Amino acid sequence: VTAAFIGLDWGTTSLRAYLADVDGHVLESRQASDGILSSVGRFEETFAAHVADWSASLPVIASGMIGSRQGWVEAPYCPCPAGLDEIAGSLVFHLTQSGRRIAFVPGLSCNDEVGVPDVIRGEETQVLGDVDQGSRLYVLPGTHSKWLRTEDGQITRFATFMSGEIFAALKNHTILGRLMSGDTDDDAAFAVGVRRAHAAPEMLLHTLFGTRTLGLFGSLAPTALASYLSGLVIGTEIAAARRHFGATRMVTILASPVLTKRYADALLLCDLPARAGLEDAAIRGLARIARVAGLVR
Amino acid sequence: VTAAFIGLDWGTTSLRAYLADVDGHVLESRQASDGILSSVGRFEETFAAHVADWSASLPVIASGMIGSRQGWVEAPYCPCPAGLDEIAGSLVFHLTQSGRRIAFVPGLSCNDEVGVPDVIRGEETQVLGDVDQGSRLYVLPGTHSKWLRTEDGQITRFATFMSGEIFAALKNHTILGRLMSGDTDDDAAFAVGVRRAHAAPEMLLHTLFGTRTLGLFGSLAPTALASYLSGLVIGTEIAAARRHFGATRMVTILASPVLTKRYADALLLCDLPARAGLEDAAIRGLARIARVAGLVR
Predict the structure, then answer these.
(1) Interface check A239 vs B, CB under 8 A
(2) What distances in angstroms separate CA A202 from CA A156, A208, B172, B193, one per listed residue?
(3) Is A175 on the interface with B (CB under 8 A)?
(4) Does the beta-carbon distance from A206 to B161 stay under 8 Å?
(5) Does the beta-carbon distance from A209 to B244 stay under 8 Å?
(6) How many contacts (CB atoms, under 8 Å) link A and B?
(7) Which residues fall within 8 angstroms of residue A256, CB to CB, at 6 or more apart?
(8) Which H helix or E strand runs over B29?
(9) Rounded mean pLDDT of A80-89?
């Protein structure tokens, strides 16, 4: 196996660097907490430090928030629908002070039915690393969960759900966190929350209050309340996303093993079958984009 | 006009004391920030200080969080449906150290269709001060908005929506607040938010993200974003509540003039006519309860 390129999956709070072959098989990888927030003003130094012992003649391609206005070089959003050709054709190239050429992958934008824009950056590359023909629905859960619809390898539309960030704000900055204790997952309470919210997703502002009353009335233990709240938020997200995307079939989850299991559990509770996508989807996607762009061959 | 009783509307963060006649007409009133949070351990002193110059022989009746477990004396929740008779029959009496007898009004509890409890405390008294015969729908907006259905003077069911508290958590503790500036209301942005959320209340976790993207893309000015966010939250609340209560007719709003106007505007945008309830609903309700309980005559 021969190293063909260096791939960077560089987000807000972390950086993953890969030395990979032409198909995206990883020869070596590094992970660091040098996200763009902590690297502002010294992106080149951070990059150089992480790839110093990898061949300086290899092409470099980067995806994620590093290509945003707050990042190293801005790669403007590419409108949906977009697939490998559109994204590879919209790479933005930057020559570093030490003379290396880096390709930045653009994020994607789309407008919903009333013209409100939505954006992703990084997730398009992961999906392109996993996707095949046919109609597919992806979820990439996290601080901001991203749901993406693909048709024959094209990302046709997507939507952001602020589930992770809103869960944290509710837990840490509202009355709902007051009765909570412990940080162990309670699968049963999570399931009850998912089912309740999935049955009435428009009632989220109300169902959330149940986290308090069930605690006050002693129906849920303090150690179960955070899991119940998480279930309410994720159950609402799934119900809304399935309506929005008309999901009746398999959902592919791209996430860490822990988050993949949590969403797979939740989807199953909502009678939606789920499968885990490729764990190395990001570097696979970077390889595909790099090949279509002619950076590697 | 003769003073017949002293009414206390004593909540978490404020205390209103009224000297009133038998019908609840106010002869004198006092408002202070001595809510139960800041009065713990010295409720009697706080009470005495505010009513010192009012006749010590008058009956006293109190509603609000002062009757909760965190308050002065706990008046256990009375289950719905409940009207004047049930509430007057569930008053809890307390003799102060100085020998005064105070009646505490119970809060109400109800269980929704899946058995999750909900509670109110104080709002039942306001509604009983305004309500008449027939079928009525009330909203008492605030940190926790309470919607109540009445039938011929009985409160049959209600639901809490955490709108105010969640708006504050989103504005102050998520990415949505980052682009905001100023604190002037923007009626146009509020209206756009209400309409958008009302059309898709199950999508709140997604529509919220529009507060960020519309700001990023320059479609909404930084000074408009907080009003847009407020519109999204209130529009979602109204859409959910109208479905939950089958609201097609007049909604009565019991709130401060500012909040009453905001909710009346929002309800009108959702094609729901609204009217303002009595401004002195709390003391009117205390008078009605006191009369039925035989405290005043």
Answers:
(1) yes
(2) 26, 11, 23, 16
(3) yes
(4) yes
(5) no
(6) 118
(7) none
(8) strand B26-32
(9) 98
